[in-house]
Design brief:
This protein is an all-alpha fold. It contains two helices and no strands.
Length: 57
């Protein structure tokens, strides 16, 4: 992840919203984007000194 993580996150989030708005859902693509967003979210949190999804860490 050499690019700006926040920009990548926003781009993928916009793609996800567009897919979710379609009449016929492409669930494999939606799942793939959700997985990519999760990895980016964890990388962003780690950059700020946080690890995992536990807010108490």
């Amino acid at each position: 992840m050499n690019t700006d993580l926040e920009s990548d996150y926003l781009r993928l989030r916009a793609q996800l919203q567009a897919l979710q708005a379609e009449a016929v859902k492409d669930f494999p693509k939606i799942d793939q984007l959700i997985n990519q967003l999760e990895r980016l979210q964890l990388a962003i949190k780690e950059r700020h000194g946080l690890k995992g999804n536990n807010p108490n860490e």
